[in-house]
Amino acid sequence: MPLQKRRIVIIGAGIFGTAMAYHMASPQTNIVLIESGSAPACGVTGRAFGWINTVHGRPGSESHALWQKAVRDYPALIQDLPEIRSFSRGGSLLWHASTQETEHLLTTRRDAGETVELVDRAAISRLEPHLRHIPETAVFSADDIAIDPIRLATTLLSTARRRGATVRFDETVSSIETANGHVTGVQTSTGLIETDCVVLAAGRGTDVLAKQLGIDLGMILSPALLLRYACQQPFIRHILDGPRVEVRQSLDNTVFIAESWHADMEEPPSLIGARFLSVLVDEFDIPSPLSLIRAEIGHRPTFHDNLPRIGFVPEVEGLYLATGHPGLILAPYLARLATRDILHGDMPDVPNVTTNNDPLPHKI
Ligand SMILES: Cc1cc2nc3c(=O)[nH]c(=O)nc-3n(C[C@H](O)[C@H](O)[C@H](O)COP(=O)(O)OP(=O)(O)OC[C@H]3O[C@@H](n4cnc5c(N)ncnc54)[C@H](O)[C@@H]3O)c2cc1C
Description:
364 residues, alpha/beta, FAD/NAD(P)-binding domain, D-Amino Acid Oxidase, Chain A, domain 2, six-stranded mixed beta sheet, 8 helices, globular, disordered C terminus, binds flavin-adenine dinucleotide
């Protein structure tokens, strides 16, 4: 039977699972997405900052080249789903403690083929009139996008549903069933679903389910903190990344800060949230009171080579991996390639999938 007619089960409604469902769903496919939470993006996707950029990559590396392709693919997604505009904004301003470091950043990004410009104090204060301590210079990236991760995942999934995908919330996959090295189904909290193709897009749960099959993906969970503040009025227009804070404000005026976090930090997330409230008050003329809504830790699914894991797993026929970091940036692009791979056997132009069981690169 052609794979298009067969049932394909996707596990997880984070950014990877919803992007896979979005690209794969059609009248010709039979897609069933299983999510243990009661809504999309209840894993780390719902705790992401939402910055579509390449600035945090290392130019020249394989991962950076992949980020660039994924970022350049975003306009096509927005063209297909124009409602994304209603929860995204354009442009970022980034600066370091010294002008020299900021200029170095500009050179690095230009050398990497990106469209960035150096802006001076006058331009920065025009771009961000509420910023109090204006740096001498900043790197402005007009093409960067700030996106609401929860609304993005929700939009992708509702479009997939309209195209025929079945979505089952509040149902947990307890195991992936196999026979003779092939996938045969998934066991969930409500019973067995038979299938010979499973897309494992369960974020940190991907590692758990793979380990049950004896597969060590080498996933490293990297925690980070997302702080959310309520505000009545707008005062930040772009993504701002300075020495003291990485911050953005969404169109509903919620303020988001992304901050590093590790388990042996003594300060609990809520206190860090309170501390950053003072940083915001010091950095901006804020037109109305700010209050902390939530301080949440999310565990980013990373791998030692900074590459995502997308492709058929060598050890089990019919098992497809779709996870990694930075998922907001990568997932829509990679899911498009993965759909071609799964449905049509096209060899997508993405990095190899390796597991610790199979240390040799395995081209999908
Ligand atoms: C503070 C912070 C800031 C970030 N900022 C950015 C950013 O600006 N840009 C960017 O690109 N990335 C960012 N990230 C990273 C990004 O959030 C992740 O790379 C991405 O969300 C991973 O998506 P995922 O779909 O693999 O995982 P998840 O979002 O965790 O999705 C997995 C889903 O699977 C479900 N699930 C798990 N196990 C099972 C099971 N057994 N049965 C059924 N369902 C299951 C979970 O409930 C979950 O909904 C940030 C992360 C953090 C924490």
